[in-house]
Amino acid sequence: MKNRKSNRMKGFDYSSNNLYFVTSCVKNNLCCLGRVIAVGTGRDLSVQSSLSEVNPEIECKVELNQYGLIVDEKIKWLMSQYEYVDIHNYIVMPNHFHLIIEIDSQKVVEKEIKIKSLSSLMGAMKTKSSNQIHELGFKDFAWHRSFHDHIIRDEKAYVNIFNYISNNPTNWLKDKFYQK
């Protein structure tokens, strides 16, 4: 077995109270969670068209399919399952998701609870969503083995990342994860 390089910052406690920006991709960047569609602006002008025809000023949104809805549900599940977890913002895209997750041990009422690390939380969410997607018949569905994280250290970074997540559907054609 190959030695894998750790994606985590050496010596950092990923179960500590902090805000984290997380990105995780579907294996092979397969677009299987939904699609990005253009939304018309103005009075009741909802327009769906191919993204190649979209004017950059037109807002886009993600239309999740049954698999994407499962991922959406499991991201929310993290907050209900773990009282010390809060999701500040997230987006499920056709082949990946982004989220800002906060671990806050001060929310724990029962002091005996062990705070899970970011890796354990992401592992639980990805396992739960994969299992449910497999149950629907998509047996080959898989996430990339790991995920990318960034420790959010200040308000400026938080605002930039929050906006990046919110604008991700509109910027889909420029996204490094974009697949036709």
Automatic annotation (TrEMBL):
SMART domains: Y1_Tnp. Residues 15-168 form the Transposase IS200-like domain. This is Transposase IS200-like domain-containing protein. Coiled coil: none annotated.
